[in-house]
Amino acid sequence: MATTKFRAVIVGGGVSGLTLTSALEKSKVEYVLLEDREDFAPSVGASIALAANGARILDQLGCYQTIEGHAIPLTNIQTWMDGRMLRDSDELLFNHKRLGYPVFFVDRHLLLRKLYDNIEDKSRLLLDKRVSGIGHNQEAATVRIIVRQEMFRHTEVNQPGLRDVEENAMLSEYKCMARLLVRLRKDGQGTPSSNIPKFTDEDAVALAQRSSSVLLSGKVKFADLRENRLPYKLVLLEEGMFRHWIWGRLICIGDSIHKWTPNIGQGVNDAIESAACVANALGRLASLHETASKKEVERGLGSVLNDEKRGATSTF
Fold it and tell me: Keywords of this protein's UniProt record, alphabetized (predicted)?
């Protein structure tokens, strides 16, 4: 671990947080990660799609091979409507040959576990640390946590785990269960975060029963999928992208700043890319300054905004 006084405080140990941690460790940038949960790889969330833009970064970090061995590759894409196939494409095979990495699905729990295992110095990874406040000035950023009231000062990176004051800009237009997407509203306006409902098991059963006759392919109905299901949950799907990512020493990455519905399969890949961009920017800052001023940090993180916001905008 580096001896420099420059330190990043990472709030949230999701995919982007653990990716950033691994990248900073390899760049020898001092850091500490604060996670609210009691486990870095909880058994929550469904499978996620990993594409070339995320896989190449995990490969550089040294954990791609351990993940690929547990993955299910995706070779064909079929589009169906009312039991009739509209499209059957093997374009993903060509993308694999062209880009060097396949598109595959992997359990979110497993991805988090492999990212965590890839980090050598786990003493910097702190569980059960809920952030209660963040402040910053010309000299440092201050993060206040509830457990033991520990204080950390330096650059702060917010990724999923903290709610933004602009959270109402993140909208939900669909709800989802076992990859069945149902539109909530037909006016195209979506539902702001402050009004998003939470669904019960009874709500999930009711939706499944109403959707039982929906054809997923020529002969397979949603009822067939439900009868052979693994654990499932009915959730709202948030999507949106905030305008402001950086404020002084603070930067938001991953789902806390841009979030997509799962059908596009790019949410986790964009989160990994964001983490890599931040790690590169902080690596440059740490190599130039023992203690960077607020303007120097803001200028350095601005390079992340220019590169990553362009890519996120094209996805959105």
Answer: FAD, Flavoprotein, Oxidoreductase
Strand 258-259 and strand 235-241: pairing?
antiparallel
Domain that holds residue 252: 7-47+108-166+242-315
CB 172 within 8 A of CB 183: no
Residues 223, 184, single domain; the answer is: yes
Residue 315 identity: T
Please report the pLDDT score of residue 71 as a whole number. Answer: 86
Residue 5: its pLDDT value, please?
Answer: 67
Residue 213 included in any domain:
yes
User: Model confidence over 33-62: pLDDT tens digits?
Assistant: 999 888 898 877 778 899 999 999 999 999
pTM over 0.85: no
As a three-state string, the secondary structure of 110-151 is HHHHHHHHCCCCHHHEECCCCEEEEEECCCCEEEEECHHHCE
In the chain, the number of structural domains is: 2
